[in-house]
Every structure is written in C-alpha cells, then in structure tokens.
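User: I'm designing a mutation panel for Response regulator transcription factor and want to avoid disrupting the core. Could you give me a predicted structure to guide residue selection? Please restate the sequence first so the numbering is unambiguous.

Assistant: Good idea. Sequence first, for numbering, then the predicted structure tokens:
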Amino acid sequence: MPITILLADDHAMVRRGLHVFLSTQPDMEVVGEASNGQEALEQAEQLHPDVVLMDLHMPVLDGIETARRLRAILPGIRIIVLTSFSDQDHVVPAVRAGVKGYLLKDIEPEDLAVAIRNVHAGQVELHPAAAGQLMHVLASSELSMNEAHVHANPHTSTRLPEQERVGLGKETSHGPDMLTRREREVLGLIAQGLSNKEIAIKLIITEKTVKTHVSHLLDKLGLADRTQAALHAVRNGWVV
C-alpha cells in the first residue's frame, strides 16, 4: 500500500511541484490538495491520508491551529511542516501542536521523500535549524527548573536528583561514558543543531565518517534517530 499524502499550501505552484515530484515515488500517492488550513481539515476528514505535508502560513486557518485540530480529529495522522521559517516562534508551537516533521523548503527532493517515509514509519524528522531551536528551549527550561529547585532549597545541590530530572527515567545505563570521544563530540554538535555536513566541516572529517559516528552512537544509546539523541543528551545534562 502506498503512503497517501495530502498537500496543504496556499501557493498553487508549490503544490504542483510537490505533486509532480511525489508522484514519481513508487510508494507514495498524493490523494488531495488544500489551499488553506480549513480545506486541509475538511479533506483530511474525508480522505484519511497517512501524511499531511503542509505550510505554516496559510489563510483562513494557519498551520499551527490546523495541526492541533488534525491531531484532535485524526490522532493517528502524521503531520509534516514544510516551511521557510526555522525560528523559535514557529518551531516550538508546531512541535507542541503535534507535528512529527519540521522541514525547510530548501530541502533536496530525495531528502524530502526519505523524511516522509521516516515520519510515516513513526520517526521524527527535524531540520537541523529546527532541532537547534528545540535544544535551546529545552536547555533553558532545564536550567530554570534547576534554579527554581535551588531557590526553594538553598542547601541542596545545583543539580536535581537523578530521578527528578526531566527525561532521564531509567536511562542511566545509557551514559556518555559508553561513547568514544569522537562520538561525544558529534553528539554535542548534533545537539547544537548542526547537520552532518556542518559537523564534517567542523571536525575536519568526511560526511560519511560523521554518518558512521551517528549510527554508532544511536546504537549504543538505544535511540532511533538524531533528534532523539539530541534531546536525550540535553535532558540528561551531557551537553550544554
């Protein structure tokens, strides 16, 4: 069965280009198009697509509110944002609204196809710039929580007890010591929102080597993708 996709963008040329490209993918089928958020809701209810690929800035109903309502009426639907904006004011509300992918419109066509497949399979796909914004927000939130704890209990340590820290749970066995020095460097740069290409330039290694390090650290940490790795690292205080 092909992955069924609903496109939502107020620019007809964007929808046409996406439709033409996605139609070349043997495992994908574009089942509908919408020019605004309200149309996207109506078509999603009627067509029940696997994935909604949509812009954030649309008339009648914007992408954030559309995502919230889609998740309310179709909890199993996968939503991918394809936009030109990677700032915190767009990324964070979109993720909170339930989107599983946040991509920028400069993405290569083949990378978009891979992202759609990954999101359909249950993974999260974030552009490095979007991931960087989430890391910043999460790190700031963790710091605020620690400071509030210390203010209320001035004689305690500046770090929260392990069992109280957000996102740690029972994952203490997957600590940073199990990673090599280079893998820790790569993980830190992932958490800063750098792409594989940017990490390769920064560390003066090949992009293929970066991909190998990413694959190894994901296996060691028992995580599915680089976004989970970045969140895991920040939540556990491994990187700043």
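For picking mutation sites, this is relevant: The longest helix spans residues 128-152. DSSP finds ten helices and six strands in the chain.
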